[in-house]
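Data deposition worksheet. Section B asks for the primary sequence of the deposited chain exactly as it was used as input, without tags or linkers unless they were present during the calculation. Section C holds the resulting structure in token form. Section D is free text for depositor observations; keep each observation to a single sentence. Incomplete worksheets are returned to the depositor.
Section A, Depositor: J.P.
Section B:
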Amino acid sequence: MTQDQRGINRKLRVLEYAKNIGNVSKARRFYGLSVKAVSLAFLSFAP
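Section C:
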């Protein structure tokens, strides 16, 4: 697995966790990410 694939998988895990618990802020804090990082992850996968 390459560095890029790890980064993509991490972003997907954060977004899936946020969807499951229904709270992006809690998911962000759980994974130790900033608001900007989560926003960029969301924009990466948005249609």
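Section D:
Residues 3-45 form one domain.
The chain has a mean pLDDT of 88.
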